Structure formats: C-alpha cells, structure tokens
Amino acid sequence: MLDVGKWPIFSLCSEEELQLIRQACVFGSAGNEVLYTTVNDEIFVLGTNCCGCLGLGDVQSTIEPRRLESLNGKKIACLSYGSGPHIVLATTEGEVFTWGHNAYSQLGNGTTNHGLVPCHISTNLSNKQVTEVACGSYHSLVLTSDGEIFAWGYNNSGQVGSGSTANQPIPRRVTGCLQNKVVVNIACGQMCSMAVVNTGEVYVWGYNGNGQLGLGSSGNQPTPCRIAALQGIRVQRVACGYAHTLVLTDEGQVYAWGANSYGQLGTGNKSNQSYPAPVVVEKDSNCCRQPSPFPTPDFPCAARCSRIIEIAACHSAHTSAAKTQGGHVYMWGQCRGQSVTLPHLTHFSCTDDVFACFATPAVSWRLLSVEPDDHLTVAESLKREFDNPNTADLKFLVDGKYIYAHKVLLKIRCEHFRSSLEDNEDDIVEMSEFSYPVYRAFLEYLYTDSISLSPEEAVGLLDLATFYRENRLKKLCQQTIKQGICEENAIALLSAAVKYDAQDLEEFCFRFCINHLTVVTQTSGFAEMDHDLLKNFISKASRVGAFKN
Q: Domain BTB, which positions (predicted)?
C-alpha cells in the first residue's frame, strides 16, 4: 500500500490522520504544500500557502491540517499544479476548480488576480465533462470526455496552442491539427504541452529550446504538431518533466527526448536529444529466479520483467521513473543531487515513492491514491486475540477476574509456560502471586511485545519478569520506570531496582536522587526508607560528594 508518510510534509500529521487519507497531492517549490482527502470525503490542506495556493481565503501558512470548506461535498477525480503554485482540480462530476497563483491568467477566470479560494471555471466548459487536467509552470490544460483539449494561461512560447504568444485568460479549445482528433491523454512540461490521440499519435506545442517537443529542432511551436519520428509507433501515455518528455508505447517500450543535463532521458549520457530515443530498462538479474504466475511460452519472464506498464515525470523536476510488468520500479535523472544516466532498479513498489524519496523537490507527480488496507499482519492478528473469550482455551483467575489466553501461543512465547502447560489439561489457572494489572500486562506483552503501565505498576511487572526470567520484559520495565521517575517515587523505584537486582536501573535511580537530593530527602518515601538501604544510600552519596558544601 502507498505510504504517504514518505513525503516529509506529512510528518506534520499524526499517525491517526495519516490512516484516514485516501487521496493526496504534494506540491510547491519545496514540496511544502499538500492537499488530501479523507475516508469521509473531507478535503484538508496544509503548508506554507504561497499565493493562497491552499484555497483557504488567505495567505497564512498552516502547520496543522485545515478543512477546505469551499469544496465541501466535492469528490476529486484528478488534480494538477503549477510552479506559482496554482491548482487545477476536476471533480468526479467533471467540474473544474482553480485557485492560487494567477499572474499569467493560469486560473482561467479572466483575471490576473491570485485566487485565494477555489473558483468554478465554466467559460467554454459549461457543457463539458473534464476527465483529465495538466499544468505547466504557468499554463493549464484540461481534457474533456469527448476528447477535446482546452488551454489557458501563460503563452510566451505558444504553450497554449492558440497560434500566438499572447496570454490566454479563459479556456480556449486547442484545435489546428487536433480539430478532428480524439485526445486520450495530456501532459505539460514547464512551458510545453503534449497530447496523445486515440490512434497512438503524439501532438506537441510550446517551448522547444531543449528539443522537448521531439521534432528534431529547437524552434518553438505555437500550434499542435505531430511527432513524425514516432510514425508507426502506437503511444499510450505521455509524461513531461521540466524540459524532457517520456512516452510509453502499447508494446511496453519507453522513448525519451529533450533536456538531459541530469541524465533524465536514461540514454547513458547527458546530451540533449531532439528526436525520440529508446530507453532500455535492463531486467533485474535476480528476478527470474523467483516463481511467477505468468511464465508461458508466449510471455517469458524476460519480457515480463522489462516490459514497462507505467512512466512518471513531473514538470517541477528532472527525474524520471518507470514500472515494469514484473513490478520492478526504475528511476533515472536527478536523484537526490546525483545524475543517474541509466535506469536504476530501486526497492520501491510504485513510481510515487521515487518522487517522495529522490525528486527535488519532494512532490507527487500525480494525485496519489491510497487504498484502504484491511489485511492484518500476524502481529496485528495476535494483538486482537488477547483476552478474547471467544477464541481462548485458557483462563487465568487473578484477584477474582478472568484473563483469557491461548495455550499454544503462551508455550511458544514463554519458557515458563512451555513447561508448566505441557501436561496441564486444565482450562483455568488460579494466580495469587501477582496482582491483576501486573499479570494482565505480562500476558498482553506475550501477545504484543509491548507494555503500557505506570512506573509503580512496572515495578510489580519487573518482579514477575525476574521470577519468570523474561530478560527482554525486564528491560522494558526498567525503561518504563526510567521514563516515569520523579522526586516523589524515586526512592520507591530505587528500592525496587535493588530488590530485583536491576543494576542499570539502580544506578539511574541513584543518580536521579542525587541530582534532586534536596526535594527527594523531604519526601515520605525517604522518611520510610529501609534502614539498610538508607545506610547504603548515604554511604554511596558521600562517596560521590553529594554532601559537600
């Protein structure tokens, strides 16, 4: 399952909040803004809020998630962002909302005023259902359900496709060579635009200074132009980096072109490429050693491992990624400051992780989708079964109350039970040596590997751990006691450490008492201290100079 916690911005969210996330998009010049939806279909935003890009109605940053009330009731189908940043969002009903930076009319609302709250964009789109959105640095594209593209915003290099270089303040249909074409996929680089049509052809327009249009030249293109070099190749998807382009064919092959100063084309060098060049993804040398459900004479493992099913790039980065049919994820280009010129096999399971961990900035290249994970691990399953009367085959009677357990698990986890329950067919065991809270904590530890007790109760558990020779539990008890020590209980905890021969804990408690000697000596615990312990304490304290003026 996708782990959104890999993006640094999510460290501001609690574990409980992360568990509720179902969609997310990390954006901004430093990856410092995020929008996400929850299992309850609520939309939240968080971050620095540059140019009002969080849509909250102000430009105040927020270190805590805030609900985006203006989109209440809307479900997100897709989302993209620009460099300002500006946001373009399409709902499941095909509506378009924009907000954020707008100096170049990239919001499509007819103005150049920054949008502090989401604005419904309906001009020329009122009878259209938008299915896909894409943003360049300062221009926007949307794709409708009938295969039409509408564009607006910054147009200094022809990236809007209108045939001029005048900025476009409202949505305008991109026509020319696309007039009678059905577009199935769109993408934007920094200042260029791409479209894949249903016949597998690729059309490009906008800035071309690095050859990112793949036309064999470096001249800008103000209207859509077909990439002739891909004649006979059927393209399914296109993805754009800052100034480079990737396409994926129906045969699982990747081609790349454009800027290559970081090796983002994956061609093994750093030379720009103005024509499409094939990207060779070598299969993992170990992958074919594993049994596979797929190997057949018609589809051997070698083909499965190297066949690409997904490509990834983002206009704000110089990073490329791809995923194979066999589930392997490769990355190349700018990866955490390094220039990786050939596809590098990662340990990731999805291309999103590449951008979370290696892209600069750490943004998401698409709207992240987090599927609920209902699968329970073995450890989680065991935790659920502790003290469950419906599945237990053993009961402990402690202080008149029952604790339910499972014989086989106790025998596996504890040497004491392995011997005591070996020939014991009783289903009830009476326990009088330890209190109910202590013994319940001990049994729960066997199911969970953790304890949750007060320092005083942990002393009792320390006694039990010593009796049962559970050394790891003994260490956990000592850790709990250390974390909960204070002036009032310091002497009692010191006494327990001495009693149970916990030397490390004894030394810790002694040092605490010395460091807080004035207050500790005024407590009831010190007044009631055992005579021998008091004698030893004073002697040891004298040796370390505690009573010197």
A: 392-455
Element (H, E) at 170: strand 168-173
CA neighbor of 211 nearest in space, from 182, 241, 179 = 241
Q: For residue range 76-123, what is the model confidence (pLDDT) as tens digits?
A: 999 999 999 999 999 999 999 999 999 999 999 999 999 999 999 999
Q: What is the DSSP string of 99-136?
A: EE--TTSTT-SSS-S-EEEEEE--TTTTT--EEEEEE-
Q: How far is CA 85 from CA 48, 140, 193, 387, 486, in A?
A: 11, 12, 18, 53, 50
Distance CA 325, CA 346 (A): 15
Rounded Cα gap, residues 294 and 292, in angstroms: 5
DSSP 367: -
Look at the pTM and tell me if it is higher than 0.90.
Answer: no
Domain ranges across the chain: 1-73, 74-284+305-369, 378-544
- Could you check whether 74-284+305-369 and 378-544 share the same CATH topology? no
Enclosing H/E stretch for 477: helix 471-484
Report the CATH fold assignment for 74-284+305-369.
Answer: Methylamine Dehydrogenase; Chain H (2.130.10)
Q: CA quadruple 516, 518, 519, 522: dihedral positive or negative?
A: positive
Tokens matching residue 267: 């061609």
Q: How far separated are the first and last CA of the chain, in Å rounded?
A: 63
User: Which of the following CATH numbers is that of domain 378-544: 3.30.710.10, 3.40.50.1970, 3.40.718.10, 3.40.30.10?
Assistant: 3.30.710.10
* Degrees to nearest 5, angle at CA 456 with 452 and 462: 75
Task: State the greatest distance between any 2 C-alpha atoms of the chain, in Å, as a whole number.
Answer: 98
CA–CA separation, 76 vs 36, rounded Å? 10
- List, in sequence order, every residue forming a beta bridge with 66; answer none if it has no partner: 45
